[in-house]
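Researcher: I'd like a structural prediction for the single chain below. Treat it as a standalone chain; there are no partners to consider.
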Amino acid sequence: MEILYLNIAGFNLKVTFGKTSLPAEQHEFSSLINHFYQGFVTKDIPRRIDYYITVSYNGSFEILEHSDYTRLLLFYKERGRKYIDTYYYISLKQFSFILKQILLKLLANRGFIIHASAAIGKKGAYVFTGKSGSGKSTIVKLIKHRYRVVADDSIIIKKEGGSFYLYSTPFIEKEGWFERSSAKYPLAGVFFLRKTPYFAREKLADSSIALERMSRELWLPGPSAIKQQMTVFIDFATRFKNVYNLCFSKQKKVADYIEG
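Model: Treating it as a single chain, here is the predicted structure.
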């Protein structure tokens, strides 16, 4: 039996790789998880565990009949409020899906996940968001010579002690050419992107506009946690004032418009 601890957005997850009659299967899967999530692995045993994941061998696949022509392969089960069982036959993408469900649950009333890219500057973390095709991945490539990129598709914003912080997500990103870790960063600014032939930065004075735009990029949890998550999301959108429109073209000079 092998045990792995992950620290994601300040939450501690314990992953137990159970015994199997196929040791090579266990080694292959645990090595994959250790490698892909290496920035979130902690060697110290946490004092508090927020969620437990157990990976086990299942010699007979559990098939759910959805209709006469559809069969669904079960890849995880929830046990109680903070336990999940899964199997060695799942893929990295399915394991990422499990982590997403766990984090959406743990973030209820504490934070939220949105579609965005992010980079770290002298003043803290800068978030770049907008509709599909607005340039979330493009802009972090353009500014990587001056800012440290930590996300190109999704981020976690979490409220701690009355302030808001940014965390990288452990999910499969669009490209993943940058390093991610469990580090937290004070939030310095949020930019709504728009590709144009010119450069312009304009502060948003109306918080209702920021609320409406950001809500389009929000990852929603299950029905039981939506109300709690929306409470912290609305609190953030109405209190956080460093929100801007950013018009840019594909030139590195856009880096000059981030910190003002």
